[in-house]
């Protein structure tokens, strides 16, 4: 699996506290092995974000992403529930 990161994702990630960054890295490793692992709580989004998916970093933080062809994934955003707005 190839994961690409948008500029927005990189900017949001850099502003997170170190503890959340480390959790995100751990979850990304799980995601690379199994995008639908139960611990990730991967789910399809709806409404304006209906083409996107999200998985949990922890109780408050999520990563919004998109599946593309040939096992390519784009990480669009990381943050708390406000990223859905």
From TrEMBL:
Gene3D superfamilies: RelE-like. It comes from the Bacteria. InterPro entries: RelE/ParE_toxin_dom_sf (IPR035093). This is Toxin YoeB. The lineage of its organism: Bacteria, Candidatus Nomuraibacteriota.
């Amino acid at each position: 699996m190839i994961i690409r990161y948008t500029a927005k994702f990189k900017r949001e990630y850099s502003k997170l506290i170190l503890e959340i960054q480390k959790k995100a890295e751990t979850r990304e490793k799980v995601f690379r092995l199994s995008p639908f692992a139960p611990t990730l709580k991967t789910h399809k989004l709806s409404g304006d974000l209906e083409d996107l998916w999200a998985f949990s970093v922890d109780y408050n933080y999520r990563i919004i992403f998109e599946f593309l062809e040939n096992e390519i994934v784009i990480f669009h955003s990381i943050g708390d529930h406000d990223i859905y707005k």
